[in-house]
Amino acid sequence: MPSPHDTPARAFAHPGVADGAPWFDRVVALLRRQQQAYARLAALGERQRVMLAADDFDGLLSVLAQRQVVVDEIGTVAGALAPLRDQWSEQTARLNAADRASLDSLCGAVALAAREQAARDEQDRERLAARRREIMATVAGLARGRGAVAAYSGASTSAAPRFEDREV
Question: N or C end of the chain: which has fewer CB within 10 A?
Fold first, then answer.
């Protein structure tokens, strides 16, 4: 006998679902929306790495702004899931084995996507920090070079000589 969850309502054309929908359908829709957001975040991460490698900091800022929109969406979905998680044990106990397995699989996929994204973000943070250190070292080297040039050229900021030869 088919489950009540085997209806066409389980195939969502839109990632959102009405509040009046059954618990299972709302949770699945929200988890799929979160999974899709993590996929968009991963794609933006690839663009971010390209911009960073090319020292395209304007492009990088644009990608970071786009990523923030996706991160905000993930937070919104997590907020919508929070009250549904309070009912998790009770509601999953009512599901048939196939629906429970499907829900567990989807939860695992979202959790894996989140972990992978966190790892990629940490790698990008380290790359960005290394690039920042390189730029700071270059700037420091330029400042030292300018100081050396000024010292050898005899340029002085004061009009009076600093040293005088006098006989006493």
Answer: C
